[in-house]
Structures are given as structure tokens and as C-alpha cells.
Specification:
With about 90 residues, the protein is mainly α. It has a domain of about 60 residues. Helices cover about 60% and strands about 0% of the residues. It has 2 helices and no strands.
């Protein structure tokens, strides 16, 4: 049984033996609201991040076939770091 107004219930409903456990479920704290959001949102962002930037590496190689492997890796790494920093900025702020 759940209620927001325990004092309005009939005493026969809440006498000993009827209700074995009473638990106050108050408003969620900032932590309780933030953590599930971050766990799901940030995980999905990292998955999208990985898929998208794997494709960016392939696109870079397609449009700049003359670029060395080192240049391709440098370009890819710079984009990864930039996006990672954006994700961290949104998580922290």
C-alpha cells in the first residue's frame, strides 16, 4: 500500500500486523537525478562518438588519399580529443 498522507488512513489499515514496513520516499536529491541521466546519456554519447569518428577516419582517407598515415592519424586524434572535451564539458557543467 502506498500513500502520500499516512495520517488520513484509517487506523485499522495501519495497525500492527497489517503494515510491516514503512518507508519514506522523499524528493530525489540532485545526485539521484543526475547519475542515471549521466550513465545513460554519456554512455550513448561515447558509443555515437566511437562510430561516427571511425567513419570520419575512413572519409578523410577517401578524400585525401595522398595524405600519409601519420597525417590521417593526427587529424583523427585531434577530432577525437575535441569531441571528448565537449562531452566532458557538458557532463561537468
Amino acid at each position: 500500500m502506498t500513500t502520500n498522507f499516512l495520517n488520513r488512513l484509517d487506523s485499522a489499515l495501519i495497525r500492527p500486523g497489517r503494515v510491516d514496513f514503512a518507508q519514506l520516499i522523499d524528493n530525489a536529491s540532485e545526485y539521484q537525478v543526475r547519475e542515471p541521466f549521466l550513465l545513460t546519456y554519456v554512455r550513448s554519447q561515447f558509443l555515437i562518438f566511437w562510430v561516427v569518428f571511425t567513419q570520419i577516419k575512413n572519409i578523410f582517407r577517401r578524400f585525401y588519399p595522398e595524405a600519409s598515415e601519420e597525417k590521417s592519424e593526427e587529424f583523427y586524434a585531434n577530432i577525437m580529443v575535441s569531441h571528448f572535451l565537449l562531452i566532458i564539458y557538458y557532463v561537468v557543467s
